[in-house]
Each structure stands twice: as C-alpha cells, then as structure tokens.
C-alpha cells in the first residue's frame, strides 16, 4: 500500500528490509516469496526487474529508514505489518521485529493503531468484495 510513493532507492531498500523481515524465522516459504513479488509489483517495473536482494544487514536498513521523513517510515511500517498478516502463522520473531522498527522509526502507539486499522480495513474490503462477486 502506497509503496509507489517512495523514491526508487527507498523501494529497493524496502524490498531488502521486507526480505530480512520474512526470513527472521528461517528460509522463506513459497508463500513468503510470493508476498515479496506482490510488494515488488506494486512498486513498478523498475523495481520488479531488480528482484535480487542485497546482503545489507537489517539493523543498517532500519537505521537508514529511521533517517527518512516520517511519511516514508509510516509507509514502510504499514507494509511490513501488512506482510506479517499474509500467511496464517503468527510469528513471535516478526512481532518483535515490528516492535523494534516501530521504536526506531519513532512511531507512536496511536499512529501504530491508525496504521493497523488501515491494513485491517483493506483486508476487510477485499474479503467483502470476494463475497459479493461470488454470490
């Protein structure tokens, strides 16, 4: 969501951070690889062509984003939270990493709740649309 608003460098760094986020619990599953591609496609062709990832450390990626404008940090956090809901498994490591990122990005609990509501509203809308078209 809203990833197309990021500059190209931030899009690429987001994909690297997303990969670090996804592999926090081990090697990515096929579903997690599909999630990576989904986010890349949202960002446009210039990013899709670059689906190889750097070996940048997640702490460096987090620190890099922590220096960005608050809007960028909010978009990154919003999408990482959305990615955490893509599979059916609740992962404690992902939760702890989200907490670490929230803190590093200076995202208040109030803003976190607002961002979470956006993700849940988007999911609810998609589910409602599926029900309506299948009737």
Topology record:
Elements: H1 8-22, H2 30-43, H3 45-48, H4 58-66, H5 70-84, H6 92-105, H7 109-134
Helix pairs in contact: 1-2, 1-4, 1-5, 5-6, 5-7
Provide a short characterization of the protein structure.
With 135 residues, the protein is mainly alpha-helical. It has helices at residues 8-22, 30-43, 45-48, 58-66, 70-84, 92-105, 109-134.
CATH topology: TerB-like
Q: In the residues, how many domains can be counted?
A: 1
Shape: globular
Count of DSSP-assigned helices: 7
Major sheet: none
State the helicity in percent bands: over 70%
Mean residue pLDDT: 89
**CATH 4th-level superfamily:** TerB-like
Radius of gyration: 15 Å
Provide the CATH architecture. Answer: Orthogonal Bundle
Element-by-element helix/strand order? HHHHHHH
Descriptive key words:
TerB-like; 135 residues; 7 helices; globular; single chain
Give a verbal description of the structure.
The chain is mostly helical and 135 residues long. The protein has one domain: TerB-like (Orthogonal Bundle). Helices cover 72% and strands 0% of the residues. Helix 1 packs antiparallel against helix 2, helix 1 packs across helix 4 and helix 5 crosses helix 7. It is globular and about 50 Å long. The two termini are 28 Å apart. The model has no long low-confidence stretch (mean pLDDT 89).
């Amino acid at each position: 969501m809203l990833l197309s608003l990021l500059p190209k460098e931030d899009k690429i760094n987001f994909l690297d951070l997303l990969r670090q986020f996804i592999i926090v619990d081990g090697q990515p599953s096929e579903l997690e690889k599909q999630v990576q591609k989904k986010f890349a496609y949202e960002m446009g062709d210039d990013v899709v062509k670059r689906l190889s990832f750097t070996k940048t450390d997640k702490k460096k990626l987090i620190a890099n984003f922590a220096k960005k404008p608050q809007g960028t940090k909010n978009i990154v956090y919003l999408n990482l939270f959305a990615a955490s809901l893509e599979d059916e498994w609740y992962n404690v490591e992902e939760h702890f990493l989200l907490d670490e990122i929230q803190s590093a990005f200076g995202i208040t609990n109030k803003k976190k709740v607002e961002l979470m509501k956006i993700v849940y509203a988007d999911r609810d809308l998609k589910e409602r649309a599926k029900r309506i078209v299948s009737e």
